[in-house]
Write a structure and sequence with these properties.
CATH class: Alpha Beta
Number of strands: 7
Helix content: 25-40%
Largest sheet: 7 strands, mixed
Radius of gyration: 17 Å
Distance between the termini: 53 Å
Number of domains: 1
CATH topology: Rossmann fold
Order of helices and strands: HHEHEHEHEHEHEHE
């Protein structure tokens, strides 16, 4: 049967052709359940990319227009995103993910748990930030387990770099927070250095090492639980816009 849902927006940017890509589109097929979620729930929960500021009232409904908005960049298969949205029903969550099975998985979770406070953009988050997120409009930013790009020659592809952090910070309202998490210690060290160097951010942690205890709203993922059983570390960083 021919697929009737519209093609997703292309992840390849149309303008900044020389911009370094901070993500790769992983291979993978959507399951039949994910396809059904696309068809049934996509029209309501998938937002089109637009080179105009996001209309929160149109995206979430007028009754939710004044609620805090949190942007998540790269939500993977969406398990944590769904749990956080259920834990914080009075917050609007906007998720950016280019991986189609991940988008389908989160849509499926939205349907299974009747989650009404998530909207999804299947598009490059850098362009979403540039065009759709006005300055000082976000209550929070979540970046959980971004690709660490282990090889030294690929470190320039890491998402958490000074120019990106400066852009992210401008999107936060005063008092808004940026929460990053990684299970790769060298990347955690870089994150801490970059975030600390941003003059408009303040570290919320009072720990001597600068890292944060995992906030209650961020659940442990299956991958994270397995890593912890094997003795692997996880580092959370929570900084606030001053």
């Amino acid at each position: 049967m021919q697929n009737s849902r519209p093609d997703p927006q292309p992840a390849q940017p149309a303008v900044h052709l020389r911009r370094i890509k901070t993500f790769v589109k992983r291979a993978g097929r959507t399951t039949s359940g994910q396809e059904k979620a696309f068809e049934a729930l996509g029209p309501r929960f998938l937002l089109p990319f637009d080179k105009a500021p996001l209309d929160v009232a149109q995206a979430f409904g007028t009754e939710r227009a004044a609620l805090p908005l949190v942007l998540e960049i790269g939500f993977g298969m969406g398990d944590a995103s769904a749990k956080i949205a259920l834990h914080l029903p009075e917050v609007n969550f906007l998720g950016c993910e280019v991986h189609e099975p991940g988008v389908g998985s989160l849509l499926k979770l939205i349907g299974e748990h009747a989650i009404g406070n998530i909207r999804i953009l299947q598009h490059d988050a850098v362009e979403v930030l540039e065009h759709m997120i006005p300055a000082a409009s976000l209550a929070g930013l979540h970046i959980f387990f971004p690709d660490p790009w282990h090889k030294t020659r690929h470190h320039k592809r890491r998402l958490i770099q000074s120019p990106m952090v400066a852009q992210l910070t401008q999107k936060l309202r005063p008092g808004g927070y940026l929460h990053c998490a990684t299970d790769w210690e060298p990347y955690a060290v870089q994150m801490l250095e970059v975030l600390t160097a941003e003059p408009l951010l303040r570290n919320r942690s009072e720990r001597a090492d600068g890292y944060a205890d995992r906030p209650d709203y961020r659940p442990l993922t299956k991958f994270e639980n397995r890593g912890l059983r094997l003795g692997h570390g996880v580092w959370d960083l929570v900084f606030e816009r001053v």
